[in-house]
Amino acid sequence: MSVEEGDFLRLEYTGKVQETGEVFDTTDEKVAEEEGIKSENKIYGAIPIIVGAGHVLKGIEEALIGMKEGDEKTVEIPPEEGFGQRDPNLIQLIPMSEFRKQGIKPQVGMGITLENTTGVIRSVSGGRVRVDFNHELAGKNLQYNVKVEKIIADDEEKIRSMISLHYPNPNIEPESHQVTIEDGKVTIQMDEMTKFDKKPYVDITFARFRIARDIWENMENVDKVEFVDLFEKKVNEEAEVETEAPEVSEETIPEVSEETEKSTEETEASTEESEKSEPVAEEVLEERIKDKK
């Protein structure tokens, strides 16, 4: 089966700057360690994507069309299909006073975010700070080594792959998310651990929206995605143990010997005789009443 637009895949890749051979991104943890770019916050291994959904560069998506499961390819990406040409207008001079107001001491190479745009400080001099808001790979020719690890065909696996892409968590297995598809509606009950995630609520909401959008835009006959947060009352196990009657096993009941049986019979007989010999309380009371009269 060949890759087509709209297919769900698991993709391995390593990206390099063509001119220098510098590796800037990879899904291979070993390569990341060797190149000194390993990040403790990144989950390594093949990433789930949808061809044509913009999860990877357009040049890579186009190269994937027609590939088969297990195929590998080297893709060259010019700046126009990568991160664009460098734009001089994205280099700004910002007064040092603006940094002081924020309690920031600017240094060359420091990354900053201004109006949701990330930049890098290139120089600090004369009370002014030169910040470059171009992407770090802008203007560079890139080379990607890609491999189609798997073409995902199962609908539930497709949904779980989008959860892994937009809501990554190294401590959660994709199979732990409960997924049902019925009458054009997908219902997702995510793993118990996600209820206690410390991410900001707005980030969680956007992640869910991206999951839902990718599902209904790329899966046939699905027009609604519902996320369910279910909280169940936990039954006290100790209380259950106390209320349950103990089971008696026949094997634990000791056999009664003949001597024990005889002793028991004698005891019962003596008890009956003593009961007969002892006056009943009501009879004694009646006798006392008669004596008084």
Describe the structure in your own words.
- By secondary structure, the chain is of the alpha+beta class.
- The chain is built from 8 helices and 12 strands.
- It has helices at 29-35, 58-64, 96-101, 155-166, 201-218, 237-243, 258-277, 281-292, and strands spanning 8-17, 23-26, 47-50, 72-77, 91-95, 111-114, 117-125, 128-132, 142-152, 178-182, 185-189, 224-227.
- Strands 1, 2, 3, 4 and 9 form a 5-stranded antiparallel β-sheet that branches. A 4-stranded antiparallel β-sheet has the order 5-8-7-6.
- Helix 4 (155-166) runs antiparallel to helix 5.
- Mean pLDDT is 84; it is low at 249-253 and 274-282.
Shape: globular
Number of helices: 8
Structural class: alpha+beta
Number of strands: 12
**Terminal residue distance:** 114 Å
Provide the residue-averaged pLDDT.
84
Outline the fold blueprint:
Layout: E1 8-17, E2 23-26, H1 29-35, E3 47-50, H2 58-64, E4 72-77, E5 91-95, H3 96-101, E6 111-114, E7 117-125, E8 128-132, E9 142-152, H4 155-166, E10 178-182, E11 185-189, H5 201-218, E12 224-227, H6 237-243, H7 258-277, H8 281-292
Parallel strand pairs: 11-12
Antiparallel strand pairs: 1-2, 1-3, 1-9, 4-9, 5-8, 6-7, 7-8, 10-11
